[in-house]
Amino acid sequence: MERLDKFLCDSGAGTRSQVKAMLKAGRVTVDGKVERDNGRKIDPNAQTITLDGEVLGGKRRIVAMLNKPAGFVTATEDANDRTVMELLPADLRKMDLKPIGRLDKATEGLLLFTNDGDLLHRLISPKKEVPKVYYARHEGAATEGDVAAFAEGLTLRDGLHCLPAKLEPLGAGESLITVCEGKYHQVRRMMASRNMTVTYLERRQEGALSLGNLPRGEVRELTAEEILALEN
Question: 202 has which bridge partners?
Answer without folding.
Answer: 108, 135
